[in-house]
Structure formats: structure tokens, C-alpha cells
Fold this protein.
Amino acid sequence: MNGVASAFSQAAALSPAAGNGAWTLDWRGRWIGVALTWLLMLLMTVPDNFDYTSLNTGAPPEAGSAMSRLLWLLLLAAPAAIIAWRSTLTWLNLRWVNVFLVAFGILALVSVVWSDAPGVTLRRCIRVGAVLLCALSFVVLGWDTRRFQRVLLPALTLLLAGSLVFGVLRPTLAIHQETSAELLHAWRGLTNNKNSLGDCASMGVILWLHAWLSRETAHWKALGGIAVAAACLLLSRSSTSLMVTLAVSLLLVVLCRAPRHWRPLLPPLVVGGMLLTVLYSLVVLQIVPGLDFLLKPVMLLTGKNMTFTGRTDIWAIVVDHARTHLWLGTGYGAYWIGPLPWAPVYRVVALLNFYPGSAHSGYLEVLNDLGIAGLACLLGFMFVYLRDALRLMHYDHAQGALFVALFAQQVMGNLSETHWFSVLSSDFVIMSFATLCLGRHLLEQRLRQVFGEPRLQAAPQWEARAMPAAALP
């Protein structure tokens, strides 16, 4: 305990009250974190320069404009400055961060050495660094116990509401013009494609439903937010997002409204679901042969047929490629670089006569990019994240339930879509922020055990007027 108290005394030294062992909540500069987060979400969800006419050109996402590159550099430099400013608090937070998220970042960067496309891998690692730095700066600047949803939910809602308006005003740009069955009349709104809109809408439904169930907002606001998100979800025609949202919404209702005497049963329920999903991922990756019959319930959950709308053909090709570099993969992001005749991915185009753009399985994508080492990082990340979320539920049940629900959404959605550790998906931003926020919650709980309740440091007057009462610990 003395070692722990010594470490936490560094946090107390940040405030004038350090002499009497107290620690102080500091809300100064919270708007900087909001601005950086919203900018990051914007870059991750909308086309470069809002150029919706070029979405079907096949250009790789890394081929950004000069403005895009400048903004990404800003998202590296600004959080780094914040972290240097709050270096002591940053160090304390790092001690509570999911170690496997850090391990993934290091492995992705090191994979430049053996990558099939080192330039692409390096550019994607820059994005990984920007996301992780933004997430870390987010939890050391202007923190309160509901900061995660207070910042991300308005950003998602504006994106979804804007997508509805955009679809009405410019339907030729906001709605897919392809005639294939899966894209016909599917909305992409302000995002890059229908699956991206569906995934953002899924997150929106979950966050607004949680706000309603936990009574963090007025009923009419929650119902309005759910309606906007649900409309985008249906218009996107993303069957995976729809079915996963329904399943997670049911789980969230159980977590938030279950009688207190049921709560001891909730952790085994959640852990059991995680283990079942890991088993399904092994079946999908064909690591455990002879278990194909287990895919039938997944078909019902995701709305796919037994080929998962052609995904099994993609999986078979990618698995064959992953086996050629089983331990370390072929480099982070180095496989799906476009339908280029000289690239290894062109075998997919030759066999399927189209370019899927991803493995359509987050688990398989990680295995293909970073091999068994990357898959071990993913499974370790999942274990630690769920452990921390369940720990949080013990003393902040509502907030812990939200992080568990987001985890469940990712676990199920990645069975047929690619989001885990993907810098081309806004889910990587949301889950990185959720992971760092989990660590901050656990740090605050430990600080309370050592120093007791914090004192409040006055924010600037213009910030104090916007400070919600519920932000108090």
C-alpha cells in the first residue's frame, strides 16, 4: 500500500492541496478535448474533402489530400502537447491502460520491418498513433465521470442527423447508386459506405438507449436520438448492424434494469457470451475444423445466409494467405491496398471478380495482418477490457454497463465486419476512447481509496456555465 500511495502522491502534487493529502479535479481546457475528438471522428467517417463523387474510384483510403494530412499531423501534435503538459497524470493513467492495446500499437509499428507494403503500414501506424494519443489526452484533460458519452454522443448524433438531411437534399450522393442487391437503395449518408453508416447508427442507438435507461437525459431527448439513429440504421440496410443492435439493446436493458438480486448473475452471463464468441471466431478462421454447424446461430444473429452473403469465399482466400505468414502476418494494413495486379490481394479479385476491400471479419483481419502475435494481442485486449468493465460495474453500475454493451457490439459485429484495431473504422476510435476511459475510472477509484473524495478546482467562468451538475463525482 505504501508503494501505491507513493505513486498516487504524484497526482496529489498536481494540486495546491497536496500538503494535506487531498487531490483535486481539474476541468480546465475540457473544450480542447472535445474539439480534437470531434475532428478525429470527422476524419474517420466522412470522405476526404467531402468528395462523395470519388467513393467508387477504388483509390486507397491513405491517398489523402494535403489538408487531410495536415489535420492528421495536428491530431498527433496537439495531444502530444497536452500529454507533456499533464505528464505526471498521464503516467499514472498509463499504469491503468489495457496493456494489450499498447502491445498492438507497438506490434503494428514494428511490422513495418516485414510488411509487404511498408509505406501503407507506416501511414496507418501514424493514424494509430494519432487515435491513441487523442484518447490518452482525452482522459487527462477536463475529465468527469460521464465525459465519454457527453463528448461522443453529440458528435455521432450530428453525423446521423446530417446524414438524413443529406439524403433528402442530395440523394444521388448520399444513397448508393449501385444496382447489386446488397447496395440497391442503401443509404451511406455523410459516411463512406452503408456499413459505416449502419455501424455509426448502431453506436448511436446504444448510447442513446443507455442515456435513457440510466436517466442521464430527458426522455424526449433520448427518444429523439434513438429515432434518428434507428432511421439511419434501417436506411443503411446493414443487416449485421441491425441484428447486433437488437441483441445489444436487449443486453443493455438487462444490465441496466435487472433487479439487484440478479446482478451477481450478470458477469457470468457476459463472460459466457465472450467465450462463445471466441469459439465462433475459431470456427470462422477454420482453426477448429468440423464445427461448421455452429455457424447456423450466427447466421440468425447477423441476418446472413450460410455463406454470410459471400463472406465465406473471402474468408477462405484470406485464410490461405494468412497461413503463409502465420506468426507475424504480412504487415499491418498491407494486404487490402487496392485491386492492383502486382499485389497479393489481387488473387481475391481474380477468384471472386470483385474487390471486397476487407476480410469482413475483424478476427481474421488481425490474423492476416499481424499473425498469431496480433491475434494474441486481440484476445488479450478483449479479456482485459471485459475484466475492467465488470470491475467498474461494481461501483458505477450504469457506466460499466455501457462499456460492456459497447464491447458486446464489437464482439458480435466483428464476426462479419472488420472493426477490431482498424484505423479505417470509427469503431477503433470509440473503443480506444472507451479503453482509456475505463483505465481513468479505475485510477479514480484507487485515488478515492488512498486520498478520499477529491476537491473541485474552479473552471473558467465560461466553462463553468456549461458544466452539467451530473458531472460531479
Residues 260 and 266 are 10 Å apart (CA to CA). Strands lie at 24-26, 455-457.
